[in-house]
Design a protein that fits this description.
526 residues; alpha/beta; Alpha-Beta Plaits; five-stranded mixed β-sheet; five-stranded antiparallel β-sheet; 15 strands; 47% helix; elongated; Transcriptional regulator; PucR_C-HTH_sf; CdaR-like_regulators; CdaR_GGDEF
């Protein structure tokens, strides 16, 4: 596996350079100090000498390498000595490189690694190996990007002077700089790549320090999957560089098609396992095994449902639902890398496994609020959100989902002004909601006199039941209730007397007032 300049630099390799890396692991200071045999351990959250425990743990547990960031250059010596003593390779990561970038590229290199050299999937190995092979054949410096100009893989360069600023910024930023992309669009480069399978030649720009390049589209049929770029180094490109680049694009296409199919199948399995865990039909172990999750770390569930009116689930198009799901996925992934988004029936759930032990409900409520506001801002749709309880392990996820559902149910039944809530925020409303659900499901628990009052209003288009409820909600304050209904206080007094005469209710009795307040909140059919 090769990440190479300019992302990382090898500081120590006590076991040589042929040590196999079998997995990538993030070691957070909050995590238990442990590593897997053969893992590349990324020591996040610890710079310089603070990363010494990670180096020692990596050696103790048989990790292949530990990657750290240095505060000052002199720290490399102490860490290298510790790595040599522990028998583990040490990589230093540039300070301006994001850990998620190193993680993604390392995992991509591992996923793309050839299995047994049998020549399948094009017979040229992974994307990094393909980039290196293409560099050898063209005599240039190669990078492979997807259609959003995100760098997927790149070749090594033994001479940093050969690498121009554009390549360096593209790899460090994980994407080509916008200023240069605008220039390429102005020159019509992307248009030519979309329209043709031929190699596009791009002249250098000495004033901006950009060297000559070749580019070719990666295609599967009529569909463009990405681009291969070849930068000219200190020597001219090979005579047959165009031909080599065309061949590399065809091999890359086979590889990217296979990767898309595998990712699609993997995503389907992940969503199935996550939905099963949320529903309680599948235990936590299958999902934990599939994604390498820690069963003993805290977890929680955020729930979302569409708002009222045209924004209810039945009024939202399939395309809009997809856009909502994508937006929620992006926002939650920015906050928590292990977040999983799935839809069960008409609700969207965000499963948050492996939460920090210091997380609190307020933080999760803030995440939910950000999501709700973003969906309304970008898509014009209203979302209600709920925060399920934080459970001590993945096995408690169904409990957290049930609590999230209780909150969403209450928001629909009794009406809650808050857009996103946790149970402590609306405890009373949730309990009232559940009492109403009980009354709705069991007509035998209702007072027939109140049922008769609602039926009378329905037949005569009256407002007696509404008036009684407003009166009770106002604690018997006639003027306040009349103002709420926009009627004269005498009109309200008349309606109350009329309701009592028709039904035999006595609203001076506390028990009858309590039952009336509950039952009259049921839908009109109740």
């Amino acid at each position: 596996m090769s990440l190479g300049e300019p992302l990382v630099e090898l500081q120590a390799a006590p076991a040589g350079l042929d040590v196999e890396i079998r997995s990538v692991a993030l070691l957070d200071p909050e995590d238990p100090p442990a590593a897997r045999p053969g893992a590349l351990v990324l020591a996040i959250g610890a710079r310089g000498r603070a990363a010494l425990p990670a180096v020692r743990v990596g050696g103790r547990d048989g990790a292949a390498a530990v990657a750290v960031k240095l505060d000052v250059p002199g720290q490399a010596a102490a860490l290298s000595d510790a790595a040599a003593e522990a028998g583990v390779a040490l990589l230093s990561v540039r300070r301006d490189v994001r850990w998620e970038q190193v993680d993604a590229l390392a995992r991509a290199a591992l996923e793309d690694a050839p299995s047994g050299g049998n020549g399948e999937a094009g017979g040229e190995g992974d994307l990094f190996a393909l980039a290196q092979t293409t560099a050898v054949l063209t005599g240039g410096i190669v990078s492979i990007e997807d259609t959003t100009t995100r760098v997927l893989a790149y070749s090594r360069s033994s001479d940093s002077d050969e690498v121009d600023d554009l390549r360096r910024l593209s790899i460090l930023g994980w994407q080509s700089p916008e200023e240069y992309l605008a220039r390429l669009r102005e020159w019509g480069v992307f248009q030519r790549l979309r329209a043709s399978d031929e190699v596009v030649h791009i002249d250098g720009d000495p004033e901006s320090g950009i060297r000559r390049r070749l580019a070719v589209a990666i295609r599967s049929g009529e569909r463009q999957l990405g681009i291969i770029w070849v930068q000219e180094g200190s020597a001219a490109l090979a005579e047959h560089a165009d031909q080599a680049l065309l061949g590399a694009a065809r091999v890359a296409a086979l590889h990217l098609v296979r990767r898309r199919r595998e990712l699609s199948a993997d995503l389907t399995l992940t969503r199935t396992l996550a939905a099963g865990l949320l529903e309680g039909s599948t235990g936590p172990q299958p999902l934990a095994t599939h994604l390498g999750l820690d069963l003993a770390r805290p977890a929680a569930v955020l729930g979302f449902s569409y708002g009222s009116g045209a924004d209810t689930a039945s009024g939202v198009s399939e395309l809009s639902r997809t856009e909502v799901g994508n937006l929620i996925s992006v926002h939650t992934a920015a906050r928590h890398r292990s977040a999983l988004v799935t839809q069960v029936d008409a609700r969207i759930y965000v499963l948050l496994p492996q939460l920090p032990r210091s997380i609190d409900v307020g933080t999760l409520r803030g995440w939910g609020q950000e999501i709700s506001e973003a969906v309304y801002r970008h898509l014009g749709l209203s979302l209600r959100g709920s925060v399920g309880c934080i459970v001590p392990g993945l096995g408690g996820v169904p409990e957290s989902r049930r609590e999230a559902d209780r909150i969403l149910d209450a928001m629909v039944r009794v009406g809650v002004d808050t857009t996103v809530a946790a149970l402590p925020d609306i405890q009373a409303e949730v309990l009232i909601s559940e009492l109403l659900a009980l009354l709705a499901a069991h007509p035998d628990l209702r007072d027939p006199r109140l049922t008769a009052l609602v039926s009378y209003d329905s037949r005569s288009q009256g407002q007696l039941a509404e008036t009684v409820l407003a009166y009770l909600n106002a604690f018997g304050d006639v003027r306040a209730a009349a103002a709420e209904l926009h009627v004269h206080p005498n009109t309200l007094r008349y309606r109350i007397r009329r309701a009592e005469e028709l039904t035999g209710l006595d609203l001076s009795r506390p028990d009858q007032r309590l039952l009336a307040m509950l039952q009259l909140r049921l839908p009109a059919a109740g």
